[in-house]
Amino acid sequence: MGDTGPSGPVMDRDEVDRALARLGAEHEAIETSLLALQDHAGRRLLEGAALTGVTQERWAAAEASITLLWTCFDAYAGALRTAREIRARRRWSSREDLAELTELLRGEAVTLAGSAAIANAPTLQGGPGRLSERYSLVALVERMNQLYASSLDLVVAADAVWSALPARIDLLAAELQRTRRLAHSVGVRPGEHPAGDDLERITRTLTRLRERVVSDPLAFWLPTEGSSAPGGGRPDTTVYDREARALEDVRREIDAVLAVRQDAEQRIVRLRDVLSRADRTLAEARTARGEVLAKIAATEVPVVSGPPTVLQEQLATAAEYRRRAQWHRLSPLLESLEEKAEDELLRARESLTAVTAPLAVRAELRGRLDAYKAKVARLGFAEDPELVEKYERARRMLWSAPCDLRVAEQAVLRYQHAAAEVLRSVPRVPGQGGPVDRAGPGA
């Protein structure tokens, strides 16, 4: 058709029918989306909730957008209904009908009259709202898509936070109550144990967190950068995760206290045994020191300390804690005592070793002297005058009291050197490394 109008070339009947079919499909899709938004659980919760903070502000704007969205949809539906009525007047639309349809379908034929909702809503161009605006059906669809996307994004975000965080907080709060009862049963109470104070703090934090999540869910929403999906993002669980970790730490500490309650008697018995062994070892070291001072001359023997009375007092305190079921006090005390008791036993053993070192040296010298005597006797030199004389001198020194270890060691060395000289003079059997037995092959 060559005719033109204010909206450009006049559409023919086929173009009109195609446009009406397309606009009708869009009408059904928009209506379905609007009804779904109307029935969305998140929207119903937002309508009935006592909101605060950023959620209150954004939901007030979203409610205005949803109201405007329905106003736009009603205007769109009215324009489409009018266009269908014009098209239905005649089977073959006249030129005047086609011109009117062209203006209605392509021109800015839809006027949104002024209202509070429209005046407070942003315009399509992003400027301040006006009391009335004119749209083409295409522009009106774009406008509705913008309003729907922003409203749905808010509703989905709030619903996602409400679906995720309160339930998780309630589960953690239930676990917190169980932990509190368990803590109370083992004496872990606020003001008496750090874990009890932690439980009180976690309780207060979770209570405040739940109240704020319910009243201001959007404060706990982290949008995903670049996401175009409705509600693109995730709930912010930073505070929840921190308190969950703190509760897990407290639970581990209480488990440790429970373990103390279960095996406290055995641990106290083991502690008594370790300290008793340390005392016996120290007593042995004191006895050995007296022996060393009597038998070894010209040597310094370390002083042996007495048993640690502090550890015995702490052990008695641990037993008292157990009797009174003060497990939270007993737990750290037992851990400290076990470490100190092992250190004390090690110190006692080291003291005994240090005290008896001179006796060990004397025993080593005696063994070495006898070993060389046996060797020279096996080779037939037991009656060698020089060796006998040097052996007896070393023996008298080692078996007399007090024994001068330095002098005795020199005597043993002289005997060793003399024995080595004698053994080197013994002829060797060809092909063998040892000397010929002086007794002869037939002995």
What do these coordinates show?
This protein is mainly alpha-helical. Helices cover about 70% and strands about 5% of the residues. The protein has helices spanning about 15-40, 40-50, 55-85, 95-105, 115-120, 135-185, 195-215, 240-295, 310-325, 325-380, 385-400, 405-425; strands at about 5, 10, 110, 135, 220-225, 235, 295, 405. A hairpin with a 2-residue loop joins strand 1 (about 5) and strand 2 (about 10). Helix 1 (about 15-40) runs antiparallel to helix 3 (about 55-85) and helix 10 runs antiparallel to helix 11. The radius of gyration is 50 Å and the shape is elongated.
- Class per helix and strand makeup: mainly alpha
Distance between the termini: 146 Å
State mean pLDDT (0 to 100 scale).
Answer: 82
Overall spatial form: elongated
Rg calc: 50 Å
Uncertain residue segments: 116-127, 436-443
Classify the beta-strand content into a percent band: under 5%
Q: Share of helix among residues?
A: over 70%
- Profile the largest sheet: 2 strands, antiparallel
The ordered string of helix (H) and strand (E) elements is EEHHHHEHEHHEEHEHHHEH
Give the SSE layout.
Blueprint: E1 4-5, E2 8-9, H1 13-39, H2 41-48, H3 53-87, H4 95-106, E3 110-112, H5 116-120, E4 133-135, H6 137-185, H7 194-215, E5 221-223, E6 233-235, H8 238-295, E7 296-297, H9 309-323, H10 327-378, H11 385-398, E8 403-404, H12 405-424
Parallel strand pairs: 7-8
Antiparallel strand pairs: 1-2, 3-4, 5-6
Helix pairs in contact: 1-3, 1-4, 1-6, 2-6, 3-4, 3-6, 6-7, 6-8, 7-8, 8-9, 8-10, 9-10, 10-11, 10-12, 11-12
Short description:
This protein is mainly alpha-helical and 443 residues long. 72% of the residues lie in helices and 5% in strands. Helix 1 (13-39) runs parallel beside helix 6, helix 6 packs antiparallel against helix 7 (194-215) and helix 7 (194-215) packs antiparallel against helix 8 (238-295).
